[in-house]
Amino acid sequence: MRIALDAMGGDEAPLKIVEGGLQALKEANNRFELVLVGRKDEVQMEVSLHSPEGLNYSVVDAPEVIEMSDIPNVALKQKRNSSIVVGLNLHKERKVDAFISAGNTGAFMAASALILGRIHGVSRPAVGTTLPTVDGNSCFLIDSGANSDCRPQHILEFGVMGTIYAREIMKKENPTVALLNIGEESSKGNELALLSYPLLEKSGLNFVGNIEGRDILIGKADVVVADGFVGNVVLKFAESILPTLKSRLKLYASGNIFRKLQVGVMADTLRKALKGFSYEMLGGAPLLGVNGISIIGHGGSTTLAVKNMVLRAEEMVNHRISELIRNSIKKEK
Amino acid sequence: MRIALDAMGGDEAPLKIVEGGLQALKEANNRFELVLVGRKDEVQMEVSLHSPEGLNYSVVDAPEVIEMSDIPNVALKQKRNSSIVVGLNLHKERKVDAFISAGNTGAFMAASALILGRIHGVSRPAVGTTLPTVDGNSCFLIDSGANSDCRPQHILEFGVMGTIYAREIMKKENPTVALLNIGEESSKGNELALLSYPLLEKSGLNFVGNIEGRDILIGKADVVVADGFVGNVVLKFAESILPTLKSRLKLYASGNIFRKLQVGVMADTLRKALKGFSYEMLGGAPLLGVNGISIIGHGGSTTLAVKNMVLRAEEMVNHRISELIRNSIKKEK
Predict the structure, then answer these.
(1) What is the pTM of this model?
(2) What is the pLDDT of residue A136?
(3) Which of A275, B2, B169, B296 could form a disulfide bond with B33, CB atoms 3.0-4.6 angstroms apart?
(4) Confidence at B327, pLDDT banded by 50, 70, 90
(5) Does the complex come out with an ipTM higher than 0.95?
(6) B19-34 pLDDT, tens per residue?
(7) Nearest C-alpha of chain B: how many angstroms from A44?
(8) A161: distance to nearest CA of chain B, Å?
(9) Contact assessment for residue A157 and residue A241, using Cβ atoms and an 8 Å cutoff
(10) Do the Cβ atoms of B241 and A215 come within 8 Å?
(11) Residue A185 CB: number of other CB atoms within 10 A?
């Protein structure tokens, strides 16, 4: 197996990306080959800092870089030799089994759909993100941002793809699927929700009805389906919770030595108690519905986050997620 | 001034409602008259427990109660003598200057629009909620759930109404208004966001562009406009943060005495640091755009929450919010 990693994508690329990739390789005892895609010299230099002797890696040159600030469609046309385009082409040509990037999300999503193509029967590839739940478990929110305007059929497909991911990767037996809505009754919601409900209900999915915003973190369902606009707003809001908590504690402590001590003492406990609430543990966000394994990383990906994404990619390849989606979508239609 | 309170609405009504209302009256030194609407005997009994001598209150009988589980439109037709209907009719007849209910939200919203009527020029009354921000400040999210499907014109009106509320009640000079979206550029978003952006831009509002989910708690804007579906999902999600934090700490501490001690020690600090992050402080959610002052309380309203809602209602009456909205909407059209 070969897993390719965009060495140039992410706020702290190539440093954290290379480091995280090599850590995954070590942890996996060279079970797969890590293919680092990026500016060859820069990447080699970075690799050399991590005693790479005996590690199963290679570097593929991609002289261009799509920056975070680039406009996706423009960048894809102009930067044909960027790490994102080169990496996805490797995947398309079956020279690698998965591609991961923490770079420009818009460009990566567009390029994935364009280069890998949609799975036959999937109307819209969608991003899924794993959110932690209070019980120490997690739920899968799909779509988290690929599709702003959706039709009921898309929501149904998100449910199908999410179910496969939750079963294979999150190890949920017969995953429950819920529709994110503003009330529990089937009569509640906007037009999209009202029309999606009956489709989900008569699908073969383990549909448990509507859930509200407050039920997500409680873990009322294994898979939560929503259009990409709502999903993305919720995801971004969720990501802001820990930083908000931190800032708030800092504000509380500022200018008061006694309070500073209190906060200092509790910080460590808080960190431990909230472990798992950080995106670093979650293995990135897969773009489901494309022909291949395409994993989107957080722009601020740390070494730990990258390591977990690489290991997650291996798992997704092993479980043949794309193939399972292809078969399930066919059946659902 | 007379402020009417639905004594029967809320999970712990009439106990907490009556208690909170009387506390507000005491704190305000009888500046206004508190009108308690509900089953007369029950309410009188409850009042008598709080040494009401010298307090400026009255009780209006409403023998029926719309339960939390009632279907709004059905309940409004069948329970014409419910506290919600009786209270809103008092307001319509100008016998009271505001009405507050922590009861069935759907029924209360529908009845407010029906009985009080829309302000001329307002297409859709909307619920605004005050969310705390990291800097110890707050922002106003409108619409938080009254309108599931919106048109751009509605979003613009939410901006107008939110601006007035933020200026008059939240004391923001020239409040900034942002559109909740999934990217900062004006080219981002779903169809509604794309069409709303130019309307907001050319309005007389202090429009600062799009913000993402993560920017809400940071306080990037004083007023955040969204359709009621997205707004409600975010609001409910936000409400689940503190309970989630609590559960997570409990889970962390369970079965380990040392950890239990750690969590016990930090709980108090955490509570103080996060003060203001609780809905109790926020004075309820006004339904803006109706002819009158209609404030929606959280179903789980505590005494403190009710007290703050009553005082907020007084402020809204003093600032003639409805009249200001009427004039501003006219200008904007």
Answers:
(1) 0.94
(2) 81
(3) B2
(4) very high
(5) no
(6) 999 999 999 999 999 9
(7) 34
(8) 22
(9) no
(10) no
(11) 11
